[in-house]
Design a protein that fits this description.
Elements: E1 3-6, E2 9-12, E3 36-43, E4 46-47, E5 51-54, H1 65-69, E6 72-74, E7 77-81, E8 87-90, H2 92-105, H3 113-126, E9 137-147, E10 160-170, E11 178-181, H4 199-214, E12 219-223, E13 230-234, E14 237-243, E15 246-249, H5 260-271, E16 275-278, E17 281-282, H6 283-292, E18 295-302, E19 306-310, E20 312-315, E21 318-321, H7 329-341, E22 352-354
Parallel strand pairs: 2-5, 11-12, 11-20, 15-16
Antiparallel strand pairs: 1-2, 3-4, 3-5, 3-10, 6-9, 7-8, 7-9, 8-22, 9-10, 12-13, 13-14, 13-17, 14-15, 14-18, 18-19, 20-21
Helix pairs in contact: 5-7
The structure holds pyridoxal-5'-phosphate (PLP).
Length: 355
Amino acid sequence: MNTTQTNKIEIIKAITSKINEVDFDNLHFGEIFTDHSFECDFTNGEWQKPIIKPYAPFLLDPSAKVFHYGQAIFEGMKAYKDDNNDLWLFRPKENFKRFNNSAKRMAMAEVPEEIFMEGLKQLLRLDETWIKKGKGNTMYIRPFMIATGTGVIANPSDDYKFMIILSPAKSYYSGEVKVLIAEHFSRAANGGIGAAKAAGNYAAQFYPTNLANKAGFHQVIWTDDATHTKLEEAGTMNVFFRINDTLYTAPTSERILDGVTRKSLIDMAKRENIEVVIRPVLVSELVEGAKDGSLKEIFGAGTAAVVNPITGFSYQDVYYELPKIENSLALQLKDKLTNIQHKLAEDTFGWTVKI
Ligand SMILES: *Cc1c(COP(=O)(O)O)cnc(C)c1O
């Protein structure tokens, strides 16, 4: 192994690369990881020396608090390679800020910006050959942090491990997506951790989502926990509704994650003179809109799929299929956004950051 020192990050390079074993034309989302990972530990009240090293399993004490009390948070972002072989990130500071907001909510150590950003950039540069050019090819980036401090006493850990791993991804077409509107289960509650990208939010979603899958639905649209009358998120994505030619989406709150894709789509739509209304949307409005034909589109928004059109929904055992539509706003906005991300259209918002 060849050890070098660059900007204070120690780099231990993998002796061989796995890249030739990867079928880049048939990637399944999030299953393949690049040759290296970034890692930085928080111990004795401070961040230790960051390191990039070969991607590999690691050891943890069985009493590590992440296993018992679930202090675990993550982010999801992407890198892109343009036709000049330059690498780009999309609004990375938003992810950094959200990561530390999540850390704060979960009583975890906050990561200094330099460690987050420099780790990210140097890791991407080192595994740069894994990022393929062309629209539809991206590098999915997964920063995460876990509590590594030991002991089963129920208090926050003193020690944390912050890591970044990379997974090459191809854009995928989700096909038909039928959703079930939640009438009993909730993703988040007032005063809870719904606004944090906390691992536990996902764990809590799996059971109700499995039930929905068994009933023939791909996802759950979550409603507010108190009344189940307001539409909040679709699976692990923010959700938009098009009624006639107006887009509606719920305001972010303690229960609704502040998605980067969501706010980018809102800004883009406004720039296109599409009316965007940010207010709680009622289940009853959706049902009415489906009945009278004013409901044209429903779509999820998030980094992984960017935009995920929903083809129909079920509520109180009635299934409402949306009509097939030409000039889908969801697909137009998706195309515009991915063009900006891949540097195929001018980024008049200043969202893309070269690395
Ligand atoms: C990550 C996430 C989103 C989407 O956020 P982006 O920043 O657009 O990727 C939406 N809802 C939930 C619950 C999430 O965890």
